[in-house]
Amino acid sequence: MTDDFYCDEVLSGKTAVNVVLETETVLAYHHTRPFWPVHIVVIPKLHVPSLTNLGEAPEGLLGELMDAVRQVARSVEEEHGAARVLTNLGRYQDSKHLHFHVNSGDPRA
Q1: Mean pLDDT of all residues belonging to the chain
Q2: How many domains would you assign to the chain?
Q3: 12: pLDDT confidence band, cut at 50, 70 and 90?
Q4: Which of 74, 65, 13, 71 is nearest to 43 (CA)?
Q5: Residue 28 — φ and ψ, nearest 5°?
Q6: What phi and psi values does residue 7 have, to the nearest 5 degrees?
Q7: Is the pLDDT of residue 103 over 90?
Q8: What would the pLDDT profile of 32-83 be if each residue is shown by its tens digit?
Q9: How far apart are the first and last CA of the chain?
Q10: Residue 90 falls within a domain, yes or no?
């Protein structure tokens, strides 16, 4: 196994996920081990290392990904009154596959 949970587990189908939104290029799903009460992950279906290293990402993919993040965040905000959007870089990025967390709620609740 590499350090890419999303390619190795989610996109390969080894780990089942509860899909929130799916397009030809993007997948959004409820986190398999949520930290926040509402915790959705949005990923490109192609391997993209990070926000600062787009690797071989085709032109337009980042825009499609951000559109999906925007749609999911809007939905979470409308339903729960607030939303956060977060991505990690460098040593903060456990899985070396670009992903955004869309979340709401207090993790201590």
Answers
A1: 96
A2: 1
A3: very high
A4: 65
A5: -125, 135
A6: -70, -45
A7: yes
A8: 999 999 999 999 999 999 999 999 999 999 999 999 999 999 999 999 999 9
A9: 34
A10: no
Using CA atoms, how far apart are residues 88 and 62, in angstroms rounded to an integer? 16
Strand pairing partners for 84? 103
Buried b (16+ CB within 10 A) or exposed e, 68-97: bbebbbebbeeeeeebebeeeeeeebebbb
Phi, psi angles (nearest 5°) of residue 20:
-100, -40
- Tell me if 77 is assigned to some domain: yes
Task: Place 109 in a pLDDT band, splitting at 50, 70 and 90.
Answer: confident
The residue whose two tokens read 């600062």 is: 52
Find the CATH number of the domain harbouring 14.
3.30.428.10
Total number of residues shown for the chain: 109
The pLDDT value given to residue 35 = 96
